[in-house]
Structure formats: structure tokens, C-alpha cells
Amino acid sequence: MSRPPFLVPPAGVRAHLLATRRGEFAVLDSAPAGPPAGTVLLVPGFTGSKEDFIALLEPLAAAGYRAVAVDGRGQHETPGERARGGYTLGALAEDVLALAEALRAGPVHLLGHSLGGLIGRGAVLRAAAEGRTPFRSLTLLASGPGRVARGQRWRARALVAGLPTLGQRRLWWVLQPKAETTELWNFLRGRWLANAPQQLRATGRVLCYEPDRVDALAATGVPVHVISGEHDAAWPVPELDAMAERLNAHRTVIKGADHSPNAERPTETAEALVAFWNAPR
């Protein structure tokens, strides 16, 4: 899971519930001082939340972009539902489309981290199939062409299997056996416990079984940016390089980062994002 470098939103960032046709979603919403150069929707990964992007919000606003980071359905502070069908990739992709519409900003730049990239890709494909153009670009941040690497699949399957028997509280101690007294540790534990278990189980399966849909994404014509750290356990960096080539995508590798450049190297990540969005097309 991403570990945000701080938890208090910067000045100018507003926490609120964003109403959409598919319900309300908890967001962190930052806006530039003047008219925005564009609007960005930030979708977190498995076990993540909007706070994973907290260090990007201020530099993106300073560069002229409104940035809206969201808790997905059943994540952290966004309400969930009991039915597992509410957390299929298609349902979560439709949530992203509803969020983009609710921002009332025209086509937005979409960014998905890890699992969020798979969901974002699903939203782009869904929109293209219906003749909609809600996205100016898609950034896949530490997110690959399909299911995660073998070792990560074993971890995800163990989590999916352990949730019904152990429950979230006991499973937390399996995942994080050493207790800490820091504000961050307490936040991570609270976030984990706030996640809907149905959401965790369903999205864990997505990570294990999502097929390669790179060719379909390339056919949409939506500009794509592939960003990763120098190392990534979820999708090997050479696999991300190959995906970028197949997509004819812009490719950025953030030095000194692993699976969460957004939290580990936010300044460099924000600079790479802005350069991509500002590039003429």
C-alpha cells in the first residue's frame, strides 16, 4: 500500500463529498488560483485512498491544474455496498465515468495508480465503446497491461481467502505485525478497517485475473502516459516498457521510486505529469 508522506491537506485543498449519478464519493479537491489549464481525476489503487495523491495536489494546482483525488466505491471514506457485483471492473469503471461527468469540466485528464490504472483503462474502453469522449488523456501510474506478477498474485489470493475467515482486524496484524504509535500507522490501520470487505475481495480478484487489453486501449486513440519507479514488484519495469511501446505512449521512469512514485517522489512525479499534459498534440 502507498504510504502518504503527510496527512494534513495543503492550503487550498478542500475535502468534500462529490455527488454523482452513482452516489457520493469522498474527494480531495485542489484548484489553481486562476482559470484551470485542465482538470485531473486521480484514482487510487488496491487498499489505497485519495490520500495517496495528497503530495501531488499542491504542485499540480501551482502548475494551473485542478486535481481531484477520490476514494473509490467501498474505499476509506466513500460508502460501499454489500453486493459483490458492485465492485466488478465494469462497475468501478462506470463510477469513474460518473465522477468525470460530475466535475463539469469537459474532458478530463485521468490518472490511475496500480489497480486504479486498470479501472481507468476500463473507463476509457467503456466510453470509447459508447462513443463518448470524457478523457483528454490517461496516465497509467505503476499499472501494467493485465494481471499482476506471480508473487503479487499469491499475496492477493491469500488476502482474498483470508478475509472471510480471519476478518479485517486480525488480517491487519498478519499484514502489519509490528505495531507503531505514529499518526501514519494509525491512519493506515483505520483506512484498512474502513474498506468494504466485499470491495477488497472483488478487486483482489481483478488484480489476479485481469487480461491484457493493451491493444484495445491503443485503438481508442486516447493519449497515454506510462509512469513507474525504477523498481516495481507488481508489474516488472520491462513489462511496463513493453506496454508503453505497444501503446505508443509517453514513458517516464521516476528515479528513486518503487511502486508509488506519487508518494515516494511527488515533486518529480508532478513535474512529469504536467510536462505530459502541457505537451502539444
UniProtKB/TrEMBL annotation:
Ranges where the AB hydrolase-1 domain occurs:
40-272
Gene Ontology molecular function: monoacylglycerol lipase activity
Cite the InterPro entries for this sequence.
Answer: AB_hydrolase_1 (IPR000073), AB_hydrolase_fold (IPR029058), AB_hydrolase_sf (IPR050266), Epox_hydrolase-like (IPR000639)
List the Pfam families.
Answer: Abhydrolase_6 (PF12697)
Which GO terms of the cellular component aspect does the record hold?
A: membrane
Keywords of this protein's UniProt record, alphabetized? Hydrolase
Q: Which domain of life is it from?
A: Bacteria
List the GO biological process terms: acylglycerol catabolic process
PANTHER family per record: MONOACYLGLYCEROL LIPASE, MONOACYLGLYCEROL LIPASE ABHD6
What protein is this chain from? Alpha/beta fold hydrolase
Q: Which organism is it from?
A: Streptomyces mimosae
